[in-house]
TrEMBL record:
SUPFAM superfamilies: NAD(P)-binding Rossmann-fold domains
InterPro entries the UniProt entry points to: DenD, Epimerase_deHydtase, NAD(P)-bd_dom_sf
Recorded superkingdom: Bacteria
GO molecular function, one term: oxidoreductase activity
Natural source organism: Halomonas urumqiensis
Pfam hit, one: Epimerase
Gene3D superfamilies associated with the record: NAD(P)-binding Rossmann-like Domain, UDP-galactose 4-epimerase, domain 1
Keyword NADP set for record: yes
Protein name: NAD-dependent epimerase
Keyword annotations of the record: Carbohydrate metabolism, NADP
Coiled coil region boundaries: none
Length: 333
């Protein structure tokens, strides 16, 4: 009988890491393609910041530390089976602090890959990337084999990360798979330093009666996915047999293309006109430039063939956020 699975989630106290940990703790077993279902044992969350809203479960171990600390990584990856690498410095922060972005986004990933390389059995690894690997002039529709053309430090670091995961997998050091994530909306919590943070803020804050600022024009299109679809994708990607992925371990995910105006209209449909009035429009040329450089129309047939799914519409995403966060709506719904 096989021992229980050992899991590591880097960036584990972020909202995706916490949702993933809660889900795993709620499951008696985890089924991986090509293997019999196995009990979930120890789950380690590694992050630079603590969290105070995690389950009280003896299987859960929260470690505060830096992602490029090789000695710590060696300890945490000993006999590890599954690794979700979510730790990252987000787009605007990586642009503002080049050294920090390189240390976390690139050297942190490389440190993790190197300690995993030393394990006797290749661990399954899910690496979170994004469509910021694209920039500048793009085709009207980005497809699976469109080559990355990053024009930001963050996008460059993620593009290099995708290639590293691919090569370490080719060499048999890890059994990796990269998820190229659309912009996630609606994120819970507070705004972060990502250029795309407003995509969640213009929905999240008005739903609870708070003002939000939109720095781009209403006609601006964005390519998004919901937290529910991200969690599904994280679990499904880990379950896939590496043989199905072949030589390319990068999976651009299906998402939903929607304009900011359509998002605001859906907000009004869910929460009434008073919520819409809480959005203030203050143009920011730099944010507009960055967002306009990202793909807004994507076709991801490979992901669909592998069993990944997109959200149906923006209103359902907003209603899912209301349900997940336990928000009581007031006003004209």
């Amino acid at each position: 009988m096989q021992r229980p699975l050992r899991v590591l989630i880097t960036g584990g106290t972020g909202f995706i890491g916490k949702r993933l940990a809660r889900h795993l703790l709620d499951q008696p077993t985890l089924a991986l393609e090509g293997e019999a279902p196995r009990e979930i044992g120890k789950i380690t969350l590694l992050d630079a910041f603590p969290a105070d809203d995690l389950p009280d479960d003896p299987r859960l171990d929260v470690r505060i530390g830096e992602i490029d600390d090789s000695a710590l990584l060696e300890e945490l990856t000993r006999e590890v089976d599954l690794v979700w690498h979510l730790a990252a410095v987000v787009s605007s922060a990586a642009e503002a602090d080049f050294d920090l972005g390189m240390r976390v986004n690139l050297h942190g990933l490389l440190a993790l890959l190197e300690v995993l390389r030393a394990q006797p059995k290749p661990a399954r690894l899910v690496y979170a990337s994004g469509f910021a690997v694209f920039g500048g002039p793009l085709p009207e529709v980005v497809v699976d084999d469109t080559l990355p053309t990053p024009v930001s430090s963050y996008g460059t670091q993620k593009a290099i990360g995708e290639m590293l995961v691919n090569d370490y997998s080719r060499r048999g050091f890890v059994d990796g798979r990269t998820l190229r994530l659309p912009t996630i909306a609606v994120r819970p919590g507070k705004p972060n330093k990502a250029a795309s943070t407003f995509v969640s803020s213009i929905i999240r804050e008005p739903l609870v009666g708070e003002r939000a600022v939109c720095p781009v024009t209403p006609e601006t299109p964005v390519y998004i996915t919901s937290p529910r679809r991200v969690l599904d994708a994280m679990l499904h990607a880990m379950s896939l047999d590496g043989e199905r992925l072949g030589q390319s371990r990068t999976i651009p995910l299906p998402g939903l293309t929607v304009t900011i105006a359509e998002m605001v209209a859906a907000l009004e449909s869910v929460a009434g006109p008073a919520a819409r009035e809480l959005i203030e429009w203050h143009a920011d040329a730099e944010i507009q430039r960055i967002v306009a450089s990202w793909p807004s129309r994507v076709e991801a047939p490979r992901a669909a063939e592998l069993g990944f799914h997109a959200d149906g519409d923006i209103e359902s995403i907003i209603r899912a956020h209301v349900e997940d966060e336990g928000i009581t709506l007031t006003g004209d719904q």
